[in-house]
Every structure is written in C-alpha cells, then in structure tokens.
Design a protein that fits this description.
Elements: H1 4-14, H2 19-60, H3 66-87, H4 91-107, H5 112-128, H6 133-149, H7 154-164, H8 168-175, H9 180-188, H10 194-217, H11 219-222
C-alpha cells in the first residue's frame, strides 16, 4: 500500500505503536524511498551530462594548440547554452547533440562553427514546426549521418530528417536554387555534397529562427 520495500520497512518499524504507528512509519518509509529514487535519477542525469562534456572536450581538442582547443570548446558551449536557455532544449540532449555533431563535422574536415550551425539550425527548424524533443533528437541523428558519410541520400533527407521536419526537401531545394525534381534526381545520382547541406542549414536558420524563439517563449512550450 505504501509503495514497495521502503514503505513496508517503515510500517513494520511503526507497528509496535499500533495501526497509527504503522501508517506513519509506512508514510515515512515511502517518502525516504521516493527521495532516494529522485536522488538516483538526478545523479544519473548529471553523470550523463558530465560524460558528454568530457567526450566533447576530447573531440574538440587540437593537439599542441590549447588556444584553438579553448576556442572550439567556447563556441560549442555557447551553442549549448543558447539551445538550453532560448529554445528549451534539455541540457543533456543539447550536450549530447552538440558532441555528436562536432565529431561528425570535424571528421568531415569541417569546423566547429559549421557544427554549431547544424545543431542550432536543425533544432530551430524542428521547434518552429512544432516538433517534439524526440523529433529534435532524430533530426540531429540524421545530420550526424549526413556529415559522417560526406554526401546526402534521399533516405536521410526526405526520410529521417523529413519525418521530423516536413519542409526539409523543399527548403533544401530553395536553399540551393534548384527545383525539387532536380534535387530528387541529384540525390538519386549521389551528387549532393556537404556544400549544399551547409547552404540548407544557413537557409533554415534564417527562415525559422523567429518562429522557434516565439514557440519557445509560449506558455505551452514553457509548460
């Protein structure tokens, strides 16, 4: 009745004092159990963020260049803080998302500025079109795969990203001054590279920034 082993233990300890003592003891035991579960979940959450931050520092580190390493880390942290404070993204999601994109973009010979653009641009576009936190995570995963492969496929653009951001295909075409038919043919031929992806990211950042900020500031989003 009082919620598992902690409640049962409290009730047994209170039992010698009669039914009232058992009830009070059970209540206290349950409170202790709930508190322990909360502390455990908070600890796990903090540990996950800490591990992601350590991974990000390793990924962004430039051997023998402490200044460039610090610059990269500062830009990544600024993007994370913006996502958390202005776009209502959970810190764990923001840290993990920026870490994964940093690794993918730098691995593709890009820079940390492009990684931050990819992270915030995709987040804003999905937020502005009423996407959920799960949609943002899925969209970032699609971007990680694109940068990791070095080229864009129809499955990643219209499938994985398009499911989270319905305007992805038309926005990609508009950003590159081509028709959607031309884009589909280029995707089929494997002719869409990361240069066109960056144009797309700049386009959606400019187009959806205000909508994302308005959405994040709404009472519903804050709730």
């Amino acid at each position: 009745i009082f919620g598992g082993a902690p409640g049962a233990a409290g009730a047994l300890l209170g039992a010698p004092f009669g039914p009232g003592g058992a009830v009070i003891g059970g209540g206290i035991g349950t409170s202790v159990g709930v508190g322990a579960q909360q502390i455990s979940s908070f600890t796990d959450y903090a540990a996950s963020i800490s591990l992601a931050e350590k991974a990000m520092r390793r990924i962004l580190e430039v051997e023998g260049d402490a200044i460039e390493s610090a610059r990269r880390n500062a830009i990544a942290q600024e993007a994370i803080e913006y996502a958390v404070t202005r776009l209502n993204v959970e810190r764990e999601d923001a840290t993990v998302g920026m870490t994964r994109l940093g690794a993918a973009v730098l691995g593709a010979k890009g820079n940390i500025e492009t990684a931050a653009l990819a992270f915030l641009g995709t987040t804003k576009a999905i937020k502005a079109t009423k996407g959920s936190a799960e949609d943002v995570r899925g969209g970032l995963t699609a971007l990680v795969q694109m940068f990791s492969k070095g080229k864009i496929s129809a499955e990643e653009l219209s499938g994985q990203l398009g499911e989270r951001f319905p305007a992805a295909v038309t926005a990609f075409a508009d950003a590159n001054d081509i028709s959607t038919q031309e884009l589909q043919q280029m995707l089929k031929n494997g002719e869409v590279g990361l240069d066109r992806l960056v144009k797309f990211l700049v386009f959606i950042t400019n187009k959806y920034s205000k909508g994302a900020l308005d959405m994040a500031a709404s009472a519903e989003e804050s709730g």
